[in-house]
Design goal:
The chain is about 75% helix and about 0% strand. It is mainly α and about 400 residues long. The radius of gyration is 21 Å and the shape is globular.
């Protein structure tokens, strides 16, 4: 029988007597980077390593999530940690832990800053021969680089994390690497390779009795089959994920459910069943969590697309703008592309062709290697130029990039 995998916390340091250092220990333990995470909207892949998709809060607010307030709160914690690091005499291990916590916090809002502090963690972890901290840092660096679209660098860090996991027999990290490798391949449009890694992740999770990870794997397989056009297979995976999740969590407040509902909505949207698409998108939107920016970004994008199909341009534009705001929190390439594509679609429908072209070009230039999104964006650029009478420019984009 499957069960939850054990959550692994970062080390909390040595016993400290000084009151100021006790406060450091409190901050480290209260913002501990817990094993789990993930990726998609899926969004973030991982085993039980928390990444962008999960903040460290344990409470769920019944009201609307305030992205600005949430980001401000993250910055306050970062400022406190930086002040402690600059004003106290710390051991190298304590300093490494603070760098880790700062990187973890930036991991949710500023990728470049997260990478900068993660490098500091890696340097000290190597010096202290702390393989566990080093392994986690390599893995987190990989996730950051996936979000930046630096896939070669991401794969290099995933390999280093996996090498340490194999050497020290850490199966949870092995599983996390499998899932995140699948996610990276999916973002590159290499769907068959992604499926291979997702299936390996699912098999390993089943063998280890990690129910939560199985739900994530099934949801990811549902997503990638949807992207491949295998709608029936996608529905089968999503149904399995939903059934297991509902047994585990009778109240649908878990962060995986918005991903599952989003995928249902995507499928129904592709089938032209806008009522069912709206039903599931609104279910995803109704699950208010103090984390889950990636899922919210996709949910708002789906709602925008549905309202666009219903010619409700006001609601479509409102949700598209909210999707862009969510993308702006993480500043992740794939989220910007998704939000930009939807904005371009709306402007095309409104015959605002110059704006449609501008949004499509901006989104396309973020990551021209993203096959699915790039193809759709080139279509928008060409279509906008055709309507504006720029047929040669339209032909140029279609011939060179489609």
């Amino acid at each position: 029988m499957m069960k939850h995998s054990t959550h692994i916390l970062y080390p909390e340091g040595h016993c400290i007597v000084n009151m100021t250092l006790l406060f450091i220990a409190f901050l480290l333990s209260s913002t501990a980077h817990v094993a789990g995470g993930q990726m998609q909207h899926t969004d973030l892949p991982a085993n039980e390593w928390k990444t962008r998709e999960q903040d460290t809060s344990d409470t769920v607010d019944d009201g609307d999530v305030n992205p600005t307030g949430w980001v401000d709160g993250i910055h306050q914690i970062i400022d406190s940690l930086q002040q402690l690091n600059s004003t106290q005499a710390l051991s190298k291990k304590q300093e490494m832990q603070i760098y880790t916590q700062i990187a973890d916090k930036y991991h949710t809002i500023e990728t470049d800053s997260s990478i900068a502090y993660r490098i500091k963690t890696i340097t000290l972890a190597r010096e202290l021969n702390d393989f566990e901290e080093l392994m986690k840092a390599y893995y987190s660096m990989a996730i950051d680089h996936i979000f930046k679209g630096n896939f070669d660098t991401a794969f290099d860090y995933l390999k280093q994390a996996n090498d340490l996991a194999l050497k020290h027999r850490n199966k949870e990290m092995e599983a996390a690497v499998l899932n995140s490798t699948g996610y990276a391949y999916m973002k590159q449009g290499k769907y068959n390779m992604a499926i291979d890694y997702y299936l390996k992740y699912l098999k390993m999770s089943e063998n280890e009795g990690w129910t939560y990870n199985c739900i994530r794997a099934l949801a990811n397989l549902g997503e990638i089959n949807r992207r491949l056009g295998n709608t029936e297979q996608s529905f089968q995976y999503l149904k399995q994920a939903e059934e297991i999740n509902n047994q585990l969590y009778p109240v649908s407040s878990d962060w995986l459910m918005p991903h599952i509902y989003n995928e249902y909505a995507f499928n129904y949207l592709n089938l032209g069943d806008y009522d069912e698409a709206l039903h599931h998108a609104l279910k995803a939107d109704s699950i208010v969590l103090p984390f889950g920016t990636i899922n919210r970004c996709y949910t708002k994008g789906i709602l925008a697309s549905i309202y666009l199909h219903r010619n409700d341009y006001e609601r479509a534009l409102q949700n598209a703008q909210e999707s862009f705001e969510q993308a702006n929190i993480l500043k992740a390439a794939n989220l910007y592309i998704n939000a930009g594509k939807i904005l371009s679609d709306i402007y095309l429908a409104q015959k605002r062709y110059r704006e449609a072209e501008t949004e499509a070009i901006k989104a396309w230039q973020i990551d021209t290697t993203n096959i699915d999104e790039s193809r759709a964006l080139i279509h928008n650029i060409a279509l906008a130029n055709i309507y504006m009478g720029n047929k040669e420019k339209a032909a140029y984009y279609l011939n060179k990039y489609s």
